[in-house]
Amino acid sequence: MIDLTNAKRVGIIGGGIVGWLAAITLARVFGSDVDVTVIEAPAVFPLGLGEGGSPNLIDTLCRNDLDLDVFIGEAGANYKHGVLYDNWLGRGVPDRYYHLFGGRGIPGLEYRVNGFFPRLSARIAMGQDLHTCIPGFKAIARNASQQEIDELVATGESGLYLSYHFDDADFERYLKRVGLARGVTSYAAKECWIRLDDRGHVCALQLQGEQFKVDFAVDASGLARMGLGSAFKPGWRSFASVLPTDRAITFDLQPKESSLRSLTRSTAMTAGWTWEVPLNRTTSAGCVFSSRHADDSMVMAEVQHRFGYGVQRKHELSFDQGYFETVWVNNLVALGTATGFVEPLGAALAAHTFEQLRNLERTLTNGGGIVPAHAIEAFNSANAKSWTGVRDFLRLHYDSKRNDTPFWRDLSEADLPKSYAELRACFQKRTPRHIDIEPYVGSGWQSLFHQIDWISVAAPLGVVPAAAARAELSQLPLEWQCEDHPDLLEGAMSTIRPRSGWVH
What we know:
By secondary structure, the protein is α+β, with helices and mostly antiparallel strands. 33% of the residues lie in helices and 20% in strands. α4 packs across α16 (466-473) and α10 packs antiparallel against α11 (373-397).
């Protein structure tokens, strides 16, 4: 048990987006009687590669009383409605599919029977695109302004769920200004160490020549991992055998008027993929790849050939995808890249970090500052389940028919993790269901990727074949094809004979 009811100081190792969000959150949770101090260290790595937010970004901002209009101006933000995937299908010709954030007003989600969506299954059965059932896609395709999008969303019929692209440096500066205005203090330090007492609790943060006593500590030091990783050395679960990319190079692109500015673009390459995040003043981009299949010069040559002009590198990073098995130990909790790392596919790292922070707040608040050991164990267990869900969802993106390069051939022949292999076997017979993703959440945590997210990726890649959707539709009750819903399946049922069983 930890008792923080008489806490005097909370120490946060590392600034950045994660550190300052944690500071703002904990200053609100603990109140003005507790000093929240951020130790800003230059070794901090940003929230994640790229600057495309996740669907739970807006909830994070609103929960911390951060005005969205101010955020847009301060962080150079614009809307993000999802991801456009180019060249992932391996058909030998340019191809694309969309994973859009779905919200209210989607006709395909008006009906759910036995855990699946008949209209979406009908589209899959007939080989139709899924994104066209979202009414707001037309606005996305014509690059509608944010004001137009606001008006469309206000109708409740757009089918769009909003997130944001943002400039990570501007976002951090904005969060720091807010934090300082709300009473958070900060110190700059090249390095920071934690000191433990006889119980193994953090009692102080040690800087060069100065020491801060703390009652609770947060490790937001990114890949430097100055707190949890250095002091407690928890077990590491690597994703290297499942997600083979291990290196990234970032760069800026010349903005293109024709680009869809409300979508992140992810393009499959010879040994990995590139991302493009349209910002207000530029396009932030980068490439993630496997160093076993290509080196930096090969990747940059391919990037420059793709874009047709010279591209200047900004940052380079080698990484091991995976996570620490334990992230909350006694009175120290780690957040963000201090706990694990995955490539920026689908903004999964951002989504996971925001969910970590939400559940840290929930645990401290619901316990009144007194947290039993089993609640900490539950946090660690749910965190691990969530990381597993991230791993499996990202692996789904690589489950295409491509085998045109050594990288893609090795992926097609690699062993799958048991949990994903089981799901894939199910998806060969039916579309993804809610029960498939329930094992990835626990102890009050929320799923990062929902049923529609899995369908939006699995169907275009062929992981859910048309035959599986037709078999699913054959289980519909007869009344769904008759007078109650005569246009529900738009002719997809013409060759399907309903069967009995599994319908009640």
